[in-house]
Amino acid sequence: MPHPTIYHGTFLHHPSTKPSAYEVLEDRYIFVDEGGVIVGISSSSSPPEGGELEGLRKHTESFIQEGKIGKEWADPVKWLIVNGTDIGEEGGGRGGKHSGRRGKVRWFAPGFIDTHIHASQFPNAGVFGNSTLLDWLRTYTFPLESSLADPAKARKVYNRAVAASLRAGTTTASYYATIHVDSTNILAEIAHEKGQRAFIGRCNMDREGINEDYYRDASADSAIADTIATVDFCEGLGRRSDSAKPGQGLDEDRKSESLVKAIVTPRFAPSCTPECLAGLGALARERNLPIQTHISENTDECKLVGELFPDRKSYADVYDHFGLLTDNTVLAHAIHLTNEEKTVIKERGAGVSHCPVSNSSISSGLCPVRSLLDAGIEVGLGTDVSGGYSSSILTAAREAGMVSRILAGLEARQGKEGGGDRTKLMPEECLYLATRGGARCLGLDEKVGRFEVGMEWDAQLVEVEMVKETGEEETELVDDDPGLVQLWGGEGWGDRIAKWVFCGDDRNTKMVWVKGRLVHERK
Ligand code: GUN
Ligand code: FE
């Protein structure tokens, strides 16, 4: 089991559902029990009297007295303390043993939530030419996905895809796999073994004429049956690890409930017959499953939906009609929605996965995120690999900021009412979408995405460089590359967040935990 752990330092998160309202808890202790649940957060924000350890003892004793934590915490030798405090230029710093030559500033943040990623497309990251959605699917995507019928190839691809996601600080990912049950189940197994919180979607696509004959479900019935096979497999993951003997396959830590769940995944409306969509809606209802799909990404796609479903009022109405628009649905892209569609999405409580890197890469359009937020719709971020070229939600957050500025510029030029500056997303808002917004989209708002007693410890330790007093640059960066974020002194938290969002990358993500378990560490 993970050890009970005390995290000390600075904690940055969004305690409310207002995207601009971040909070920084400085010099705090967060107590996480062996089950990975936050059991106590110290309230003191001033340095404890009598030194580090004495202060910690005081916090611990008062938590025990208040009944917040058990007596087992009283024995200091059992504490594993993770240092999230700053490290001085000479190394050491408060409580740190590190020998870094640069000054480092550290903070904990909630793990990133990737609300939309195609693990199966990972080998194509960066490759999209000048295609747009429908020809991109035929040229790049279907040939790659169909090759994952080979379980050995799938294992290789999925091992890499999940590792890249964890390395980028993503503690929860909602994955698309392919149509193949065995390969999709391999993705579920890999996420489970690596310890990521994950939703696993076997991709449904049974419509002849739209899908290629070499890569589609044979019928609506076979699509539903194959989806059920993956749902059953995912539900069995936790149970199987229970029966595994220590040293066999899954380790002791994995005995608890599986963090991997199945998600019902119609690829997008055009790829499915009405029978398939109806069957998936019924399955989601019967088995109480979340749903993910694409909506209104590209104008040709929207036109195609109109032609294929002439009886339905709109793209959103197709999903609604088949029971696929629920408060457990995540809709990727949502760029070209009408106001009527926004209203029904809000009424059903479905969330939107904003995928700005993908939208720019395959020139799908500029998603008006502010108008979705104003409509009261939950919004999170998706990498949408490989429509998007990066597995990093930090990169998606950066692009969300950039795209909102391009849109603001266009709106201002058009003299659009409500356009202009209000359309722009500030870095702290992008960070909200990357964490709390994603948790809300995926129905995890009572589990992860912020630091509060009762929440699970899905977190990352961020470290950025504080430029030396002398301004001198390090010449040897090989073993200790600080990345591109540089603090020059005097930056407030708004500027620190901005620098992290716009200049940060995997090098700043030092440690990553899911439900208290360390799942990535950058040495
Ligand atoms: N619409 C249908 N399939 C896909 C896909 O694989 N990626 C993206 N971005 N959109 C889609
Ligand atoms: Fe996608």
From TrEMBL:
In which family does this protein belong, per the annotation? Answer: Belongs to the metallo-dependent hydrolases superfamily. ATZ/TRZ family.
Q: Name one GO biological process term.
A: guanine metabolic process
Keywords noted in UniProt: Hydrolase, Metal-binding, Zinc
Q: Give every Amidohydrolase-related domain span.
A: 109-519
Which reaction is the catalytic activity of this chain? Answer: guanine + H2O + H(+) = xanthine + NH4(+)
The source's superkingdom equals: Eukaryota
By its UniProt entry, which SUPFAM superfamilies does this protein fall under? Composite domain of metallo-dependent hydrolases, Metallo-dependent hydrolases
| Listed GO CC annotations | cytosol
What pathway does the annotation place this protein in?
Purine metabolism; guanine degradation; xanthine from guanine: step 1/1
**An example Gene Ontology molecular-function term:** guanine deaminase activity
Does the keyword field hold NAD? no
Q: What does this protein do, in the record's words?
A: Catalyzes the hydrolytic deamination of guanine, producing xanthine and ammonia.
Report the cofactors.
Answer: Zn(2+)
Instruction: Look up the EC number in the record and give it.
Output: 3.5.4.3
User: Which named protein is this?
Assistant: Probable guanine deaminase
